[in-house]
Design brief:
By secondary structure, the chain is mostly helical. The chain has 4 helices and 4 strands, in the order ββαααββα. The strands form 2 sheets. Strands 1-2 form a two-stranded antiparallel sheet. The protein has a two-stranded antiparallel ribbon with strand order 3-4. The chain is elongated. The N and C termini lie close together (11 Å).
């Protein structure tokens, strides 16, 4: 038995706009330099990845990535400074919540040690 903590953010309409999936997608964009490559690495359609990013950007009110269209010189994507900060804050918050949940779990279910 274990307790699991999942952190998601909801917009003003109670619609999910950010969680572990978009966070992994942004980390992959950071690593690959490409939203398309990031989507492929997650077995996700590019259109779905783009929709996730645009939805989060709309809810947050700032761009998470800068996209450059392909062509002769190729395209790519990079995280904006705001995107990097948001991702770092999300991950720190998520990790703190998981740590707090682990401590509470052992407090309420000490036999699980």
């Amino acid at each position: 038995m274990k307790a699991v903590t999942k952190i998601i953010f909801l917009d003003d309409n109670n619609e999910k706009f950010f969680g572990e999936g978009p966070a992994r997608l942004l980390r992959s964009v950071e690593r690959t330099g490409s939203l398309r490559s990031a989507a492929i690495s997650m077995d996700m359609a590019y259109t779905k990845a783009l929709k996730l990013i645009k939805n989060a950007e709309t809810a947050l009110g700032f761009p998470l990535i800068i996209r450059a269209a392909g062509g002769k010189d190729g395209g790519g994507s990079i995280l904006t400074d705001d995107g990097k900060e948001w991702l770092q804050r999300y991950e720190a918050y998520r990790d703190a919540c998981k740590q707090a949940n682990s401590a509470l779990y052992l407090e309420f279910f000490p036999e699980q040690r």
